[in-house]
Amino acid sequence: MTESRVDLDSEKMGRDLVALVLTVVELLRQLMERQAIRRVEQGGLSDAQVEEIGTTLMLLDQRMQELCDQHGVRPEDLNLDLGPLGSLLPRE
Amino acid sequence: MTHPGPRAQDPVAQTATYVFAVCRDTRAMNTADLTALPGMPGGAPLRLLSSATLTAVVQSVPTADFTDEVWQQRLSDRQEIERYARAHHEVVSAAAARGPAVPLPLATLYHDDERARRVLDDEAERFHGALKRIAHHAEWGVKVYGRQKPPQAPGATPARPVAVGAGPRQAPAPGAGLAYLNRKRSVHQGRERRRQEALSVAESVDAEFRQLAAASRRLRTHDASLTGDHRVHVLNATYLVAEERVDELMRMTRTLRERTDAQIELSGPWVPYSFVGEV
Q: What are the pLDDT digits (tens) for B8-54?
C-alpha cells in the first residue's frame, strides 16, 4: 500500500461530504419539482394551489443555492457519475 | 529468465514479456522496423517472438514496473497513463504498417517468453480468425455531438443562477410561483426535446455507418466533466471499414453532416483495437 493512495486531507474530505449531501438533497429537490410539475400539468388544482406549489419550489431552489454558496460548492459539483448509467442529475 | 535462481534475488533484474501485437508468421515482419521505437519506458529493445504459426512483437520489461499496485497508481495519473498508452500504440501501429496485426490491450504481460509463446499456440485459432477479420480493414471512430443548447430567449431569466444571496430574501411577488413553475416546465421540455432529437440523430447516423461497415461497436459516450467539452455527446461508435470503402465513408460523413445539424467527428484509420475480440 502506498501512502498517496490514502487521502487524509480532512478539509477536502469535509468539502466532499458536503457536496455529497447537497447532491442527494438536490436530487430529491429535482424529483419533487418534476412531480409537482406533472401534478400541475394534470390539472385539477386551483390557481392558489399552483401558486403555492410554485412559490415553495422557488424558495427551495433559492435556499439550495444559498447553501451551495455558503459551502463554496458550485451547482455543477452537485452530481455523481454513475458510470454507464450516466450522471445522477441531468446535465445542461 | 524469471526462474528462481541467483537473478531472482535481485528484483531489478526480473523481467516479464510484454506483448504488443500478434501478426502472421508469413509476413515480412522485420526487427529493423521496430528498433527505432522505445516501446515501454524502461524496457529492453523490442523484438519478435515466434510461435508455430504466429509472430508477436514483444519487449522485456522490468516486472517491478508492472505490478498491480504500480499499474493501479499509473491509471490514476492521466499524464503517466497517456505516456504508456502512446508508447503501446506506437509499437502497435508500426507492427500494423506491414500487414494485419492483432493489437493486444495495454499492459498485456506474460511471466516470460515461454508463457507468451504457449498462449500464442493455444489461442492460434482465435488469433488467425481475428487476423482474417481485420485484414485490409481499418477502424474508424465516429462521435456525434448534439445541437448546442439554444441561446437564452431575450428577457428570460436564467433557470439556475438566480440573483439571490445578495441582501435578505424578499417575500415572493404575487404570480412568482406560477412564473417559476412555467419556467421550470419549459426548461424540462426543452431538455427532453433536445435529448430526443439528439438520440434520433445518433440512431440514424449509426444506422447509415453500419450499412457500410463490416462490424460496428457502440461505446460509452464521454462525460463532459472529464473532457471539459460541454457539447452533448450523443454517439460514440466505432466501425470496421474495408480499405476500398473508405471513399464511401468520407462521402457519407459529408452527406450526414449536411443532412443533420449535428456535429459529426470522424477519426481514423486506426488499428482495429475494437474488433479483435477477447484475445
A: 444 456 899 999 999 987 655 666 677 788 899 889 988 889 888 89
What digits encode the pLDDT tens for the residues B150-190?
544 444 444 444 444 444 556 677 788 889 999 998 988 88
In terms of residue numbers, what domain contains A19? 12-75
A81 neighbourhood in chain B, CB within 8 Å: 223, 225
**Mean pLDDT rounded to a whole number for chain B:** 82
B132: its cell numbers: 482474417
Rounded Cα distance between B95 and B102, Å, is 9
**Domain membership flag for residue A57:** yes
Choose from B72, B77, B145, B184 for mutation: most chain A CBs within 10 A.
B184
In a domain, A5, yes or no: no
Classify B70 as helix, strand or coil: helix
In degrees and rounded to multiples of 5, residue B266 shows phi and psi of -110, 135
Written as nine digits, the cell of B16 is 516479464
Q: Is residue A81 part of a domain?
A: no
Residues of chain B positioned with their CB less than 8 A from the CB of A79: 225
Residues A51, B178: C-beta atoms closer than 8 Å: yes
Q: How far apart are CA B24 and CA B272, in angstroms?
A: 16
What is the C-alpha to C-alpha distance for residues A71 and A66, in angstroms, rounded to an integer? 9
The ipTM estimated for the assembled molecules is 0.77
Distance from CA of A65 to the nearest CA of B (A): 8
User: Do the chains contact at A57 and B181, CB–CB below 8 Å?
Assistant: yes
**pLDDT number for residue A56:** 92
Provide the number of structural domains found in chain A. Answer: 1
Domain for residue A16, yes or no? yes
Of B176, B223, B224, the CB nearest to A58: B176
pTM over 0.90, yes/no? no
Residues 6+ apart with CB under 8 A from A27: A88, A89
